[in-house]
Amino acid sequence: MKVKQFRYSQDNLGYLVYGSKTAIAIDPGAVSEIISFAKEKKVKIKYVTNTHSHHDHTSGNDLMLEKTHAQFLDCKAIRNKRSLKLDDEDLLVFHTPGHTRDSLTFKADNILITGDTLFNGTIGNCFSEDLLGFFNSLKFLCSFSKETIIYGGHDYVKDSMVYAKLIDKQNPETDRYLEKYNPDHIISTLEDELKVNPYIRFNDKAMVKVLNKKNLPGNTEYERFKSVYELY
Ligand SMILES: [Fe+2]
Domain 2-229 is classified in which CATH homologous superfamily? Predict the structure, then answer.
């Protein structure tokens, strides 16, 4: 299975996951680009779905369905399936609530499509009001191998590194991370994220130090996560 990223609107990122014959469009805002790419690769767009039900992620659904006659799978339907076959390969679907109650993460080989749960450099807002649930979702995503590729739902790389530097001025990794920034392809590994993304550095000694200095609660992983989440 392969994954192609498509940028649309200001900073939204959508994806086409494809095998040798069929494909699934996830958050398909870049409708015409996705269709052209699928034609070029000679794959049929069989399904359309979303990482969660926010409008900026679902805005391309109707046009994509009209132009391709693909089957629409809403977040709940696809979550219940847990995986989807694409040319005999499995695209895994995980429920990762927190940003919204219906947030999903997709796994194609070693690639995670994380929507607004985990971005490259930051995380989404906790609109579900279930911060502990959000933390558990992030912990689950952090349990994959360090080489796992993270494909998020927006490009917030530059702003997120400004913020990361505000929290931890001493971290030399933020500049290294920014040097790799390419607006045409927003990508990082879980290892990169664990070095720079302040919200998932809850077990990083440097982050524990930062919180101690600020006299913020930090005895448990969740306390540290919450302290960083509530910082600004
Ligand atoms: Fe969202």
Answer: Ribonuclease Z/Hydroxyacylglutathione hydrolase-like (3.60.15.10)
